[in-house]
Each structure stands twice: as structure tokens, then as C-alpha cells.
Input
Amino acid sequence: MNQSFDIAQADYHTLRDLIRTRFGIYYDDQKQFLLMSRLQTRLVKRGLQNYHDYVRFLESGADRESEFTDLASVLSNNETYFFRERAQVQLLCGKILDELLAHSPRIRIWSAACSSGEEPYSLAMSLLESGRIPESNFTIGATDISQRVLDLAGKGFYRALSFRATEPAMIAKYFSPLGDGFLISDRVKRLVSFSKLNLMDDRAVQTHGPFDVIFCRNVLIYFDKPTQKRVVESFAKALRPGGYLFLGHAESLFHLTNVFEPLVQPEAIVYRVRAAAPAGTGARA
Output
């Protein structure tokens, strides 16, 4: 088959808009080569001759939904490791946990865009280590758009690169050696529930709550400003009044929305949903 990996500008813009609408990820013209390089394998998989045919397939192909599912894995940046941006986790397990427990003995946390599970498992281990809350009194929901990484998270098997910021004592306590890696303990695994969710689905985001804390780190940087605003305001509706949102260090809500107030702490910056925001109001489980 004589394939062409060139793309007309009109087809690129259509493809870019399809991806933005479905996933929220925005590729401007400067990122055209990056997007095309990621999608070459999809043309081969689908047996398509060129990007024009691929765009038409995504628009109206009979199996387009299956392709969007595969695209979610291709486009996702799954760079992560245990105890990433540790200062934020320490803030959660210190001041914020104390404040939440003063209002209720139970808390709910959401790890949005959890990738292969290192973040939610880090939160679970840190809460266990804090000694401030019984494991029966907190739940951690973890979601991602990619079924492939969710399957990896559910297995709980990790190799050396995931432990670049993990002390040997924590590995010994919460993991067991298996082949060329480590398997997370059942005690930690049962504290986290994984499910597939697209952050562009406003209704699904809002009904997924209510939560006391949401972690969505290093995700907004892939969205344009309107999409960032849309997603974080959906988060506000999924949080209980006064709930907290943690973002990546390179991300900020300044000049984006006023539904959150920034709290600058010595450890990190965290955002608290304002009392007037349309937040979730369900009773704690």
C-alpha cells in the first residue's frame, strides 16, 4: 500500500478540532508535526492511505467510536511516578485533612486523569502513613480517558522508573517484588477504585462527585483557555462547598475563573471552591 503521511491544512484543522471537541487537547499549528507523528501508527492500523481518509473516517466511519477509544491512549501523556510533587500530598495529609476531619470523619478524593495509578496509590499510602484517618473512612476514585492505562493501574505492577521519588522503606512496606518490578499491596489497592471518564463530559464530571478534594495535575496545560475554564468550573460543581482542587505546579487558575480562591501555603498552592460556587451538596458517604 502506498501511504502518504502529508496532510492538507484544511484536513489538519478538521482533525485538530475533532480531537479538541472529544478530548479537550488542543494542538495549534506549531504542534502539527507532533500530532502527525503520533497518529501515523493509526493510519497503518486502520489500513488507510492518507490523513484525508483518516479524517473522513473519524467524522463518519462505522467504527469511529472504537478509533476514538484507541486515540485516547495515543494522545495521552502518561508520564508519572509515585509521590510526584510531594509537597502537595503533604499539605493534603496535614492542614487540609485536619480541616476536613473537623467537619466530617469521612472524606472522598478524586484523582482525575490518574494515568497508570501512581497518583491515587500515592494518596492512599500517604493517608495511611498519616495515622489521622482510618482507612475505612476515606475513599479515592481515580479516572482516566485511556482504558489502556486504567488496565495497568488495576494490575498495580510497577518498574523502577515509577519509584524515582519513593523511599526504600515505603517500597518494602507497601509493595512486594515480582519479576523485574513490584506489585502494590492489596491493602492499598482496595482503597482506590478506577473507572473511565472523559473530562469533557461535563455531566459525568459533576455527577461523579461530590468530593472533598480533587487532584488534576499536569492536565490543564494540554487544554486551551476556554477548555481549561470549562473543566475547572465542572470540578467546582463536583466539589462540596469549601472543597479543594490541586493542580500541577505549572498550572494556575489566575485570570481564568473566579469560582476558586487560591490559598498560598508554605508547602504548595491549593485552590478552594468559593462558597458562592455551584458546588456539589451531597451527604458524605
The chain has two domains: 9-75, 86-273. Strands lie at 107-111, 138-144, 157-158, 175-178, 181-184, 192-196, 211-216, 239-247, 260-264, 269-273. Residues 277-285 have pLDDT under 50 and may be disordered.
